[in-house]
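User: My collaborator sent over this chain with a note saying "see what the structure looks like." That's all I know about it. Can you take a look?
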Amino acid sequence: MVSALFPTYARADLAFERGEGAWLVASDGERYLDFGAGVAVLSLGHAHPHLVGTLNAAAAKPWHVSNLFQIPQAERLAERLAQATFADLAFFTNSGAEAIECAIKTARKYHAAEGRPERYRLITFEGAFHGRTLATIAAGGNPKYLDGFGPPVDGFDQAPYGDLEAVEALIGPQTAGVLVEPVQGEGGVRVAPPRFLAGLRELCDKHGLLLVVDEVQTGVGRTGRFLAIEHAGVIPDIAALAKGLGGGFPLGACIATAEAAKGMTAGAHGSTYGGNPLATSVGNAVLDVVLEPGFLERVASLGLTLRQRLAELEDRHPTIIDSIRGEGLMFGVKTRVPNTQFTAAARAAGLLTIPAGDNVVRLLPPLIVGESEIAEAVQRLGVACAALESEAARAGAAL
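Assistant: Without extra context I'll predict from the sequence alone. Here is the result:
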């Protein structure tokens, strides 16, 4: 059967009928432990009772009214995000790319409101991924995503990730700010050193720039803090959230201080669907769980457990695993075999993982995962490693 979908994804020959918690059941009845979570989206796993109940209740009320009217659910979600973070204000979107677009526009508009419209350029980083719109692929700078779409959108200057001197060298009279992922997800789960993030804050303060953080994948508790940049003790001016914020429902947010958002006045930006009652009801339900006392501490503790188990796995399979990196429940396994080969072996062992750049395999379990499921996942990774070792031995014997 020929699919009517655009052939833009290399999809595995696998479909799922139902899920519960950290588990998925395929159409053939096979059970899979989901350590991909829809690329860090399913923060509360599959069929979480509170999310299901909230969605069912919200579905019986107006789904959408447009932003021409008051939306109490969105007001409440914005207030809760402000209380949980550095921010004062929020703009809701349907995706992470849209949240980044809003963040870029907010940074540019701030300088325009300050009488400096020439300051529109953002310094970004090699290995970054900020989305698939024309502006966000230009911000990411990856030739693979830019190819075939004409001249890249102007306004982005790239520096090596972690190189403060290179950042300062790029700052000029047109620079508006710095856009950075505290952990590069698509780029290979590369964790920014706290001193690097602190240095970016200092450079922004020194030169009158805005610090914009892409927390689309890392935000809403993924690393054991509500925002990953909190690990560095750094306060940004603007942040983009999505993925885990909706727990599987399309929802993103650009959050900012009142000062940074001063240019975003009536008519400066908009979204037809963004922040509608249905989406923001689900977002509030996610925060009901994530902001419960002890929840984030539990994520951090489970992250330490996962790190220890993965280190043991690395010791047992040095010909397959090169290194382990990550934070909280966001880990990358850098492999000595092609990462697509590793993800396929893990899937054959009943574990779902996500490939990333730098030949890394991402482990992104739901934040409600249990210790027994972590142990089960590592055991299945061990099965995958053993299978890859046997395959390599057979290939060597055949030479």
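A starting point for your reply to your collaborator: The mean pLDDT is 97.
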